[in-house]
Write a structure and sequence with these properties.
The complex is a heterotrimer of chains A (281), B (188) and C (222). With 188 residues, chain B is α/β, with parallel strands linked by helices. Chain B has helices spanning 18-32, 81-99, 114-130, 137-148, 152-162, 169-187; strands at residues 3-7, 39-45, 53-58, 61-66, 71-72, 75-79. Chain B has 6 helices and 6 strands. In chain B, the strands form 2 sheets. Chain B has a 4-stranded mixed beta sheet with strand order 1-2-4-3, covered by helices on one side. With 222 residues, chain C is an all-alpha fold. Chain C has a single domain (25-207), classed as Ferritin, CATH 1.20.1260. In chain C, α1 (25-49) runs antiparallel to α2 (56-82), α4 runs antiparallel to α7 (178-198) and α5 packs antiparallel against α6 (147-174). The chains are: A mainly alpha (281), B alpha/beta (188), C mainly alpha (222). Bound molecules: fe (ii) ion. Residues 68, 71, 106, 109, 157, 187 of chain A line the site of fe (ii) ion (FE2).
């Protein structure tokens, strides 16, 4: 088996269908959504009062499910791709152990997601799968990989699980609330792992640390996707400040993610408005 | 088969085929009990990837959908036969109900509460499934529980509606009252 | 319990543990180092395979088992300094070149169509061999002086039996044709032959007696 594979190596059964980010962003209907959603083109807050909210929750949960599969795959590859050592392309033994532990946690999250999907009336593979998480998990530098996956993406998972947990509480869905609560606990642990390893591995290498943080910013911004995640009233996924603090994020770092989300939303708004203008003329 | 008129005829933003939509809706109309000479109009707003749907008129039967409602969730912008028949089955069984006497007291679609809507949907989709149209019982049950409570009373009411035959608006209202009472008792 | 001062035997009549064991501290450390090396290669391989396996149930199971073997590696890593090996990396080594060759052959299957070959290597060859070597160690070490190793082996064997069963059941549910039976058998034969040359997962003497193979030992302490 060769080291360092890429997103094309992800094996799936026939139920799964992959959707590229380009396809997602080049959908011409995005422009039409401008007027409807406060200019972001994105869908609004997951509000139980809306008739379509159970279906949106189903679709979000399916996105979480495929994210869990990729998180499992990414952690598995980190166990395999790097030898134990002190070089930049090597990792400490304990880091590998943490990644193996994360494999088990993500495998449980997949199991939970399958059961939860059944409960919500969702079939495996009912919605398209995007693969950004695994793409971040292919970074050849272990520090960048862990920062991108464990801090940016697992950080997003904290925000998503918290939002879904609140949705479960509001709708009185006991199983949704129960599952999200448990998964949230694991994700806080994973983000903490990412923060701890970033600090330890770059203690004497500030340049590498800033490269890792820059990679995190890129991933964070991508996932703040045009206001999808943020602190605005209508963000689909709300930034979970309290749980991020538990996971080792400083207030400044959380403020920064909030700001990135705002920027990403403004940029998307401008981009879509520009496209609408071009199409109208 | 009922005569189905789909607008628009051609699409620019999605890869839909109005002929195929007409065929699928026609089949669903037959199964919902519409006569072969009935006329059914379908208006698709292709610009919107969301999934809202409604019946805008009963004479002639006109349904309006956002493009997302007919879309394949796995393949954006592609038509899904299953989605078309799922939506058409639900709306047409309900429209057919309104044309009979048993639903004369039902408010307009805009006046229905969310619990009333999903209760009526459960009754409509249950019949659609038995008629051979694609339908997901577990998805409808999840919608129902979200609006009527995650408890045994709600599940029993759902079963009654899903398996119901010749129900009337009074039956839908009774189910709603029953689940509301159970919710109230649980929170008291 | 009437008289609290009454002398009692230090070993209760039913406690038949004995001092003598088959391994010295040094031999135990060497064996434990080999165990750690094997557990590491195994958890890395399982983790590496996760993305390459299309079957969802197998994918999730491999994720769970990855952790089991990593935990075993950690137990052995912690045991080494207790066995006077202050540099655990020094003894974290394969028993010989054939065991390295075995892992190379075991991890060769990569394509999504090769789940059977992947599982056969782990669950029909390696894990049974691990169970054998661990059980031999458990039954032959001193039940008094080496109690910490025994405790770890018992925890590990619990995982191994369960994982073995899981893996075998996955295989039985995946194998549906004569051709697949032959594929599974061919992979098993290929790997068993290499393992025979290695003399078991910790080399000749994996199950006692040095006669089973003549493989040269590498990575042993000087
Ligand atoms: Fe997870």
């Amino acid at each position: 088996m060769k080291k360092h594979n890429d997103v094309t190596s992800l094996a799936r059964d026939s139920r799964f269908e992959r959707l590229s980010l380009e396809d997602q962003f080049s959908d011409p209907r995005n422009a039409v959504m401008v007027g409807r959603t406060g200019g972001t083109g994105m869908r609004r807050r997951l509000d139980p009062a809306r008739p379509g909210s159970p279906d949106r929750a189903r679709s979000l949960m399916h996105g979480i499910f495929t994210g869990e599969i990729q998180a499992l795959e990414g952690a598995g590859r980190t166990c395999f791709d790097f030898e134990v050592g002190t070089g930049d392309d090597e990792v400490p033994f304990e880091l590998k152990l943490d990644m193996a532990r994360q494999c088990w946690d993500e495998a449980r999250h997949c199991e939970i997601s399958v059961k939860l999907g059944e409960w919500m009336g969702t079939e495996i593979g009912e919605f398209a799968e995007t693969t950004v998480l695994f793409e971040a998990a292919c970074n050849p530098d272990p520090v960048l990989r862990l920062t991108g996956v464990n801090r940016a993406l697992e950080g997003l998972a904290i925000d998503v699980f918290n939002t879904m947990r609140e949705f479960g509480a509001e709708t009185g869905d006991p199983l949704l609330h129960f599952c999200e609560d448990w998964m949230l606990a694991d994700e806080v642990t994973h983000v903490k792992m990412g923060s701890d390893w970033l600090r330890r591995l770059t203690e004497k290498d500030p340049e590498r640390r800033s490269r890792a943080l820059e990679f995190q910013r890129v991933v964070d911004k991508l996932f703040s996707g045009a206001g999808f995640r943020g602190e605005e009233e209508d963000s689909t996924i709300r930034l979970a400040r309290r749980f991020r603090e538990l996971a080792g994020f400083s207030t400044d770092e959380i403020d920064e993610i909030s700001e990135l989300s705002r920027q990403s939303r403004d940029e998307a708004r401008a981009r879509i408005a520009q496209r609408a203008l071009t199409e109208a003329s | 088969m009922a005569k189905v008129i789909v607008t628009p005829e051609t699409y620019n933003l999605v890869f839909f085929d109005s002929g195929r939509i007409a065929e699928l809706v026609g089949e669903a109309a037959d199964k919902a009990g519409f006569a072969a000479d009935a006329e059914i109009r379908v208006e698709v707003d292709e610009r919107v990837p969301l999934g809202r749907t409604k019946t805008v008129s009963l004479d002639p039967i006109s349904i309006w959908v956002e493009g997302g409602a007919f879309e394949d969730a796995k393949r954006p912008r592609q038509l899904s036969d299953q989605s078309v028949q799922d939506v058409a089955g639900r709306l047409l069984f309900r429209a057919h109900d309104r044309l009979g006497g048993g639903f004369a007291d039902a408010p307009d679609d805009d006046g229905l509460t969310l619990p009333q809507q999903v209760a009526w949907d459960a009754y409509a989709v249950g019949r659609a499934e038995r008629a051979g149209l694609p339908a997901s019982r577990s998805r409808r049950l999840y919608h129902f529980r979200n609006r009527h409570g995650f408890n045994d009373v709600a599940d029993a009411a759902f079963d009654r509606l899903w398996n119901g035959v010749d129900l009337t608006w009074a039956d839908i209202e009774a189910a709603c009252q029953e689940t509301a009472a159970a919710k109230e008792a649980a929170s008291a | 319990m009437a008289d609290a001062k009454k002398p009692r035997a230090a070993f209760a009549p039913w406690d038949r543990r004995e001092l003598p064991g088959s391994f010295t501290v040094e031999e135990t450390a060497k064996r434990v180092g080999h165990y750690k090396w094997v557990e590491m290669r195994l958890f890395e391989a399982l983790g590496g395979w996760v993305p390459t396996v299309p079957e969802l149930d197998v994918k999730m199971r491999l994720g769970t088992h990855t952790y089991h073997h990593a935990w075993h590696a950690d137990l052995w890593n912690k045991r080494l300094p207790e066995l006077r090996e202050m540099n655990p990396e020094r003894l974290t080594a394969p028993a010989n070149d054939h065991i390295v060759e075995f892992f190379e052959a075991m991890t060769e299957p990569e394509a999504p169509e090769q789940t059977i070959e992947k599982l056969v290597g782990v669950y029909r060859v390696l894990i049974p061999a691990k169970i054998a070597a661990y059980t031999y160690h458990l039954n032959n070490t001193s039940t008094i002086t080496d109690a910490p190793t025994i405790r770890s082996i018992k925890f590990i064997l619990h995982d191994e039996y369960e994982d073995w069963t899981n893996g075998e059941m996955l295989l039985q549910s995946l194998i549906e044709t004569d051709d697949e039976i032959e594929r599974a058998a061919a992979q098993q034969i290929r790997l068993e032959k290499i393992l025979l040359k290695a003399g078991g997962i910790v080399g000749p003497g994996s199950l006692g007696g040095e006669s089973q193979a003549s493989a040269e030992t590498v990575g042993a302490p000087a």
